[in-house]
Amino acid sequence: MKWWFLQREPSQAQSSASFHSPQQQIIEESVLYRTAERIGNLAVNIAEAADEIHVISFHVSEQSSLLTESSTQLEQITRANQQISNPVQGLLPVINKALADIETSDQIAAKTTQAMDQLLSTVRHTAQELSAIQGSLTGLNNVIATIHQIADQTNLLALNATIEAARAGDAGRGFAVVASEVKALARATQLQLGEIKEVITTVVQHVGRSVIESRHADQNASELGQLSQHMRTSVTDACTVVNQVRGTVLGLSDIAADNLQRCQCAETHLAHIAEKIHLADTKLKNIDGSVAESSKNIEKLMGLFAANAVATPDLPFINKVVEVGQKISALFEEALANHVITMPELFDEKYVPIANTNPLQHRTAFVELTDRLLLKLLDSILEFDSRVVFCAAVDRNGFLPTHNSKYSHPQRQPLTEENIAWNTANCRNRRLFTDKTGISAARNQEPFLIQTYRRDMGGGVFLMMKDVSVPIVIGGRHWGGLRMGYKV
User: Fold this and answer.
1) Where are the annotated coiled coils located (predicted)?
2) Which of 77, 95, 320, 476 is the most exposed place for a label (fewest CB within 10 A)?
């Protein structure tokens, strides 16, 4: 739909009014003006609602995406909990078996310790007995030595008695026989005592070695007893640790089971919530689309009023933008005719990023030309009406090379959060504006376009505005558009 119009001069609107009285014509024009004004207010309200709905739809869509992602992550957590719960449950029988084995080992260790204690007691008693036997044998040796001395003395006495009997002759013959027997007995006793002493000496040696061995056995048995006691202590400690591990695993099993149940429950609830959010997101998008379409229809209706030269609150702004747009087209064509710039340079789409800028700014082959030709002209438009906020030319891709002076400050450095916010509001030249309003104005090829939108002024400040744009055509080729934004 094209909206061809002229400034409000004698036209069809006035010629059609010739059939009515002047009073009726004034009434009709007043009604049309008020209707257009109310339609304009309605457009503002719809634009505000559309913007709010769009923001809500965006957040709901984000929430839907986050919920979907959270649901996926919760499913993974549930599977992980299941993978934890299963091994934990399988670990309990192993721990119970290990605990039973350790308890059995503890019982065996207790019996071993008890047997070692008994063995140590027996070894020590044996060593004591052997020491006593050794002492007795030593005493026996002393007795034997005494007997041997007595036998020596008896033998000497028998020898003396034999001598005396020989001196006595026949009278001592009987005594000689007795002396001879005593001597023989003494010799036999000495022989027996010698053998007994040898046996006792051998036994004493064996017993001595046995005493030494028994002392070694006592020491070994004592060390073995300590080792056995240590082993039992270790087994007891291991039993305690395994019991603690079992308690921990039981607790972990209960926690894992409870966590798994909670995760499964949360997963179900989250899936239900995600489904509702997704449904709300779909409905909001439909509403957003419907409101946006209504906004477009209202804007078309406003344009229709203006196109038919009906006096509306927007008509002066439209006429001004058309006038300035034609001037800009003429300035560009003059620059081409004077070879100040070539057509490829004027239509350059190589947007070269400017380093260390945020928001990002760009350069093209025509920015110096637009600065030189357009800056003063665009600044003068700000004095047209106190409601005018900006006026700028953009190419067909939304690139704004030259802005009003108050929006064309050098960017502040360093790029802190505070400086970036200031740059966003005050450094709007050399930037690409590809939002819906900006790109629509840049690519519009109708005689004019009216849009109502909420403008981001930077620093969290937004302003409801109307945007009137006209195409800029150079040699029959669409270069972009001239935009004027004014407060409503």
Assistant:
1) none
2) 476
CB 284 within 8 A of CB 64: no
Tell which residue, 210, 221, 207, 211, has the closest CA to residue 122.
221
Judge whether 464 and 50 are in contact, CB under 8 Å.
Answer: no
* Distance between CA atoms of residues 303 and 321, nearest Å: 14
Cα(323)–Cα(194) distance, integer angstroms: 156
77-273 and 314-487 in the same fold: no
| Burial zone of 34 (CB within 10 Å; 0-12 exposed, 13-18 middle, 19+ buried) | exposed
DSSP states of 119-138 as a string?
HHHHHHHHHHHHHHHHHHHH
CA atoms of 83 and 58, how far apart (whole Å): 37
Q: CATH number of 314-487: 3.40.50.10900, 3.30.450.20, 3.40.50.2300, 3.90.1150.10?
A: 3.30.450.20
Contact 397, 344 (CB under 8 A): no
- The total number of residues written for the chain in this structure: 488
Q: Please, where are the H alpha helices in 444-483?
A: none
User: Across-strand partners of 400?
Assistant: 431
- The per-residue pLDDT for range 356-392, each reduced to its tens digit, is 999 999 999 999 999 999 999 999 999 999 999 999 9
φ/ψ of 485, rounded to 5, equals: -110, 130
Query: Can you tell me the distance from the alpha carbon of 436 to that of 442, in angstroms, rounded to the nearest whole number?
Result: 10
Half-sphere exposure of 412 (CA within 13 A, CB side): 12
**What gap in Å lies between CA 275 and CA 64, rounded to an integer?**
8
What pLDDT score was predicted for residue 299? 57
Residue 397 DSSP one-character state:
T
Q: Which amino acid is at 335?
A: A
Report the candidate in 210, 209, 285 with the shortest Cα–Cα distance to residue 54: 285
Domain coordinates in residue numbering, the chain: 77-273, 314-487
Residues 6+ apart with CB under 8 A from 164: 172, 175
Site of tokens 């036998």? 151
- Torsion over CA of 56, 57, 59 and 64, rounded to 10 degrees? 140
Fold of 77-273: Helix Hairpins (1.10.287)
Q: Mean pLDDT over residues 172-201, rounded?
A: 76
In tens, the pLDDT along 40-70 reads 566 566 656 666 676 676 676 777 777 677 7
Here the tokens at position 381 are 């438009």
The structure tokens 């009285």 sit at 21
The pLDDT tens digits of the residues spanning 228-281 come to: 777 768 778 877 877 877 777 777 677 767 776 777 787 687 677 767 776 776
Q: Token pair of 340, please?
A: 């100040």
Percentages helix, strand, coil for the chain (3-state, rounded to 5) are 75, 10, 15
Report d(CA 303, CA 446) in Å as an integer.
Answer: 11
